[in-house]
Amino acid sequence: MVASSEFTNLFSPLALSAGESELQLRNRIVVPGHNSVFMTMTGPPTDRIHQYWLTKARGGAAMIITHLHDVAPRSTEADSPTIHIDESIERYQKISNSIRAEGTKFLIQLNHVGGEGSSRLNGGALLAPSAIRPTRNQLLPTAGETPHEMDLESIERIVAAFKVAASRASQAGFDGVEIQAEVSFLIAQFMSPQRNLRTDQYGGSFKNRMRFAKEVISAVRQGLGNDKVIGIRISGDEFLKGGIDQDEAVLIAKELESTGILDLIHVGAGPGGSAHIPPTYHRAGSFAYLSEGIRRAVALPVLSSQRINDPSIAEHMLREGISDLVAMNRAIMADPEMPLKAMQGRVDEIRHCIACNECISRNQAGIPIACTMNAEMGREANMLVTPARVTKDVMIVGGGPAGLECARVAALRGHNVTLFEKNSKLGGQALIAAKAPGREDFDEVYRYFSRQMELLGVKVKTNFKVTTDTITAIGPNVIVIATGSVSPTGGHPGGTVEIATVRQVLSGEIDCSNFNKVLIVDEDHSIKALSAADFLSNLDCDVELLTGALYAGAQTEFGTLQMVYERVLKKSVIIRPLTAISMVDGRTVVAINVLSEEETPIPDVDLIVTAGLSVAEDSLYHTSKGLVNEIYLIGDALAPRKMIDAILDGARTARQI
């Protein structure tokens, strides 16, 4: 198939050196390593992760890199990791063959976490170059302990472990190894002037701090052989005070290249400053400069990472010589067929990642990752789209995320679908979320699904409020109620302060430009209250945010939370933790500490904005029962939850019709 002329560079092949051999890549798109939690770190690969990788291979990616595989136990008492289990070798042989059969190359990422993580599961102690506690996740230090400083014997043992792991990776059929030397794991700890305070041959000078990494590279080549790829992933800037900065990263890349052993340098970012998994507040492609600096300094091919969510951005980076390959992780989570669609010129059909970071949020919680935009991700074997045995007339009421996904899948299965939306535009609450500063990517819900409705022939009727009379008149075979939720304001007797919801503020239903002092009450602990604070502070309002929790947005993903906090604090928003409203007297709001019960008056308040819990709008469901034999209730109308839950509801329900 001839690739679209729009992406000449993106779909050009690349012969990647593999020791004394070559590895032919069909294009420049790489799926980088990431932890899916679809298997354990000490067990063999599962069928779930196999299907996850295989779907990406079939979607057109040129190369897939696995999640990190520990070369040795994470603590002195931990279990033997995955790569040392014979069953893993056997299963990976089958997985490698199936992925290569799709035209995709397959690399394993080898790592040791060093002083990161926790030893609580197994006991013992973590190992690190120096007994320095981690500095990442300082704002929410949910993990972090003082490791044991490695002696020379320990260093030799870990280097040898990389050699053994590489040998077993070769037996397992991988096309090569990526050495993980990023995100403050062990190799990065040795390279970092912040984490490595040693005074022997492995610390002090730049050359000494590089010694461990170079020994690991040599050991991996010895174990892997001379006919497979060795890449290394480094940070282009750790964004940690005293850590590896951009200038030092360039020096590191040049020093690693000088070994003559490497075939590829993969440039990421972070882990500090929300850079490693950039949330929506980081503009797509905004970390390309880190790869560009290293690309100009080395002769080796450079793989660029960090929020490359569109083939046009990737094409630009390749055309301008910023990198030789592009890592598109969350982009391919959202749409594993993105490479094929771009190659075929079907760019308007691509489902873009919105950087909501629900995937990493789940990872941080230790549960399998999932994608807001793509309900099938991680459920590939169980969520096939199969033709319906009987074609039905399906009436979907509600054009928010749940209703739209249900309409898309039902139409794909061959049903005749009509979707009704009471407002003038599809998208539901995603349209409101997109109004918040820095969260414009949420408009992708409207763009993607509107185009899908056109392509699939779904009849869309906007500005249409459905009643039971409407249902009776149309007489569908199936009704799906996706009418969403409402957000009540609540009340404060005795007050003359105007009250509004976050939805009313962000949607523009209430003009807030004339309010001077605004109080926001965070009651659902998501990002809503902080988004409203960000929005209102841009209108020159004097904003205070009250939350009964220890901090605002307590259920928000770490990186997103850090960035929105930075934004609102720089705009002089006052955040009062452990605080609720006791009463309102005229325009004076009496705040109360939820623990000490100490009261504080806040005078001259013009507006109270509630970020409260939503209530399901399910009345049509109850009044429509009995009108048809098949009726479903989905999304927030079933129970107010996150957008990821609403889309999953729609995806599953459409498969039942």
Keywords, separated by commas or semicolons:
657 residues, alpha/beta, eight-stranded parallel β-barrel, five-stranded parallel sheet, 27 strands, 32% helix, globular
Topology diagram in text:
Elements: E1 14-18, E2 21-25, E3 29-31, H1 47-58, E4 63-70, H2 86-101, E5 105-111, E6 127-128, E7 148-149, H3 152-171, E8 176-181, H4 186-191, H5 206-224, E9 229-235, H6 246-257, E10 264-268, H7 288-295, E11 302-304, H8 311-319, E12 325-327, H9 329-334, H10 338-343, H11 358-364, E13 393-397, H12 401-412, E14 416-420, H13 429-433, H14 444-456, E15 459-461, H15 468-474, E16 478-481, E17 485-486, E18 498-501, H16 502-507, E19 517-522, H17 528-537, E20 542-547, H18 558-570, E21 574-576, E22 579-585, E23 588-593, E24 599-602, E25 607-611, E26 615-616, H19 619-624, E27 630-633, H20 643-656
Helix tally equals: 20
What is the percentage of strand-forming residues?
A: 15-25%
Return Rg in Å: 27 Å
Number of DSSP strand runs: 27
Tell me the helix content. Answer: 25-40%
Question: Quick check: average pLDDT?
Answer: 95
**Spatial strand order of the main sheet:** 3-4-5-8-9-10-11-12
Pairing-aware structural class of the strands and helices? Answer: alpha/beta
Span between termini: 36 Å
Shape: globular
Low-confidence stretches: none
How would a textbook summarize the main sheet? Answer: 8 strands, parallel, barrel
